[in-house]
Every structure is written in structure tokens, then in C-alpha cells.
Amino acid sequence: MKKNYYITTPIYYPSAKLHLGHAYTTIAGDVLKRYKQLQGYDVFYLTGSDEHGEKIETKAKENGVTPKAYVDEIVAGIKDLWELLDIDYDRFIRTTDVDHEQAVQKIFDRLKENGDIYKGEYEGLYCVSCETYVTPSSAVDGKCPDCGATLETVKEETYFLKCSKYVDQLVAHMEANADFILPESRKNELLNNFIKPGLQDLAVSRTSFKWGIPVKGDEDHVIYVWIDALSNYITALGYLGEDDELFAKYWPADVHLVGKEIIRFHVIYWPIILMALGLELSKQIFAHGWLLMDQDKMSKSKGNVIYPEYLAENYGVDTIRYYLMREVSFGDDGQFTPDTYITRINTDLANDLGNLVNRTISMTNKYFGGTVKSHNVTNEHITWLHDVQTKELASLNANMDKLYFSKALEDLWRLVSATNKFIDLTSPWALAKDESNTELLEAVMYELLKSIEIISTYAKPFMPATAAKIEEQINIEAVTSFETLEVSRETYNVLETVSPIYPRLEKEVEVEKIRAEMQRGMDEAKAKLAKEEEIEFDEFKKVTMKVGKIVSCETHPNANKLLKFQIDLGNETRQIISGLANYYEPSELIGRHVQVVANLKPVKLRGELSEGMLLTTDTADGKIKLIFLDEHEVGAELL
Ligand code: MSP
Description:
alpha+beta
């Protein structure tokens, strides 16, 4: 009988464009789903988008659209990305889906009725960017410890979730279930830093903005985004909805895959909500690390990102899936570097796997016209290959059980190498010279093809398109279960001509191309950042700019780069110091009209008072030019 398996990813904030780091969690979930399916499980894989909150409300306003219109467009992009990356999810839940919103209201009501949610008043520090309250002790210089944004002090009437009531139960559960939180190191961190020092009740409603699910009967309050978001794991299955068949079938979740920065919500608040609802707790929360670029978390605002679209278009989706799962040990932080990425493609995919498939197919064609059948012949090399298969697959399965994707791929690649070595050990070209060896030669070719079939099937969760291509080249039906590998085929009948599954890349050229693409992304982010620093008109109006006439100009007595000006502003004369000595002769400036910032606080520059600033531009060759306004009246204000 099929067993059920339920996997979730976090639901994503609709930020303008998801990067490779974001794709990491979703790819891992998809790999796990496909692996479990091949094991015979009936899997439900959930992903989605987390669309409410103040940040979205503000962004939408800045863009002049409604929050819903704003998220609709971005969510469409997220779905396109998952399609591109071959993510086979069963539901994409949006927290704006009507069934979700209704169920969340019911969840809130239920907790209120049970006394697990009560009304009170909150005063404290709040991070708008993370949509979370921050305790004074965890704030760093008045800034959010997670994202570094400046914290706001807020005071509002709010509903609270009685976390304190469930602490003992939670700690007992964590201690009794070794696999509840993985990797284990995260568990101790949470227990010691957050739970044991005393968990405060959590503020679970907001009145300071509107874009959220309203509390029924108290519509000034919207439900805190994390309660809304976490509940998706059960509302997606129909919990408290019209049809809860999926909930009955798949809950509790087998694994919630989350990034390490959101583990606190999943390990503390989510179980507390479930306990308060009287539901079974999820079986496991696995916190993976971050994908880094040069030691820094890949993040759009830092501009150190690479987008999956570019890599997929140039190197194929499977290279991304393989690289992320192979290069980054799941649970730890890992790096994306163009160099290791191209090396992995060339070494693991083109050389090791690609060559194995290509050599085997061409030898099968050369020696047997493409068709080989199984024989009862064996020798020490065949036995050795079988032993390697048994050993590596056992290790692979054990590693997959622990979500050690990278180690599982190491096991699989040891089998790839062994199969390549098997060719050298058996030397089919030597066997082909003597007709008495035909049977053994055919057995060797059969074993090679069998090993390739095994490899391609175990590689399938990681690289579905590549596995499909191998199946096509060795001309077998798509394998849908690991079990079928145990039944031997009568024959293999490979295609006559095939192209390499991964052509070798010119490493330096490709690395340069990716670097250039990353630089382009970086420049784009910088330009965006500069744009985001735009100021309101009211702020601009605070600056007074006037046309001034240069009455006198001489070099600064104490600094040879500075000039000392007396400027006539119509009703007064000001002294202004400016760094123009390298660009102008004082005499050529007398009588010229220039643009002056007139209401700057005076400062002393090298002992001389400066009561304003002259506006300049810088030229492409690094020089500085004054802005002349000779045709404008002295003292006129610039508007
Ligand atoms: N909306 C919340 C999750 C709510 S779940 C009930 C959220 N969204 S997110 O869009 O910011 O992040 C989604 C996932 O992407 C998280 O698991 C996060 O850890 C992951 N990543 C974002 N940047 C990442 C890297 N640079 N590297 C690896 N994962 C990263 O959090």
C-alpha cells in the first residue's frame, strides 16, 4: 500500500524577482518529492506565496497600484520560475486565496474562543521590513538584528497568543523527538536562546495597516502575517474548509523545509498554534543554510545575486539543480561561484556521466548493432560492479533519509566512477578481438547499460530532464519506481546515434560570461538603490538655492586645493569655500553668476568660514565644473 508523504517549502514573499538562493529551498523540496515518489510514496508537495503585510502595502502604494494587483504580477513571475526549474508542486497556495483567508479567520476565532488568544496592548520596537517585533535586548544599536533596518517604536492594541502556556509541552516535545528539528545544532540554539529564557506571548494582530486578513468582528485588526503564513501548511489541505480530505490524508507534515533565518517561527510559534488547535505536530523541520556569494548572503538588496533564468538559458535547468544539491551541504551555508559551477558541469556532468553514457552507447552499436541481451555469464569485475552498486545505493538511501542531498550525490558519483572504471577493467575493445569472448563482451555491455539505468534513475530526482535524455538514448521507458530496477530486462536496444548529454564548456569563457552577468545585476541593483533614495518634494523644498555673483576669489590661505569666494546674493555677501583651485584661475571667475545653496549650516574649512555651497558637475575626465547662471539675475531664487 502506498504511504503518504507531505513536504512544504516556505511560502515566498512576492519580492520583485526571486534569485538563486530562493530557488534553493524549492529545488530541494522537489528533489525530495521525486525521490519519495520513486520509493513508492504518494507525495503532496506544497509551495506558495506570502502576500500580506505592511511591506507589500507600502510597495504597492509606491508603485501606484492596489496591493492585490502588485502581488498578482509578481506571483505570476514566481510561478513561471518554478515551471522553468521543473518544480512539480501539488498546490501553489497564495495567502490571498479565499479558502485560505476564510480558514485563517476560523483558526484565529477558534484560538480566541479557547482563550489561547486574548486582547491586550503592546508597546515596543517593531521592524517593518521583517514584520516582527524586536525585544530591546536583541536590537543592535536601535536596528533589527536580522536585517539591520531601523526599528520603529510602536504602541498598539493587539491580540496576543498565549505562548507561555505551551512552553513546557514544546520543550518536552523537542527533547523527546530527536528528529523534530534538523540539523540538531539549531535545536540547542533555539532552546537556549529563545525558549528557556522565557517565551513571551506573541502579538498576533496589527492595527497600523490594512493589507492583511481582518479579525472577524474586530475589523480594525488584521491578523499578524506569520500566523496567516504559517497556517498555509494546513489550510492548503482544506483544514477548516469545505473539503478536508487532503488534510485527513496528508497531515501531519513529514517535513517543513525552511531557511535557517525563519526556523524560530517554525519551531516555536507553529507548534504552539498546532498545540492550541489540538492538532498533531509536524514530524520534522529542516533548516538549511544560505547560499552565499563571497561569504555574504545572496540578496537582491546587496546586489550580489545571480538569477536562475540566466543559468538555465545558457547551461540547462538541471545544471542548477545538480550544482545546488551537490555543492552546498544541506544544512550548512554554501557558496555559488562561477568557477565551481562550470567545473561541476565539465567534470561531473560532461566528463564522468556524459562520457560514460556516450562511450557505452557507441560500443553497444559498434559491437552488437545496438542490441544486447542479458547472460548468465559473470566474472570478478561484474561481481565487483554489483557490490559497488549495492554499497553506494545503500549509502545513498541512508543519506536521502537524512536529507543529506550532497552526500547522496557523492555516493551516486562513486557509482558513476566505478562504472567508468569497469570499462577500463573489462576492456571491451580487447574482448572484441576474440570471438570466443562474445558472450562475455555482451554481458559486459549489458552490465554497463544496467548500471547507467540505475544511475539515471537515482539521478532523476535531481536532474529529471537529464535522466529523461539518458532513458531516451538507451531507449527505455521512463522508470517510475526504484523497485522496477530490481527486475532485470531481457535486452537493451540503444539508439544508433546520440549527442553528448553535456558538451564540455570552455571554462574561462563561461566563467567570464557569468561574472559579467553578475556585475550587470549588481549595477542594476545599485541604480535601483539610488532610485529608492528619492526624496519627497517637501524635503527638496527645504533647500534654498540662489543665483550668486562672484565678487572676489582667491586661493585659501591654508589649503592649495580650495578657493575662497565672496559671493553677492542680492541682499547680502557670503564667504564660501570650494574645492575648485585645480580647475579655475581665480581671476577668470570674477563677475560670473553661479548657483549657490544658500541655507546650509555654516562650517569652518581649514580655519575659514564657509556659508553655503557652490553647485558643480563632474565631467567624464574627472574634472569639476561650476554651474554658471550668467543670464540669471543676482539674488534670484531657483524654484
Ligand atoms: N514568507 C516567509 C516564509 C513564510 S513560511 C510560513 C519568507 N519568505 S522569503 O521569500 O523571504 O524566503 C523564502 C525562502 O527562501 C526561505 O526559506 C529563505 O530562507 C530562502 N532564501 C532566501 N534567500 C536565500 C539564500 N540566499 N540562500 C538560501 N535560501 C534563501 O521567509
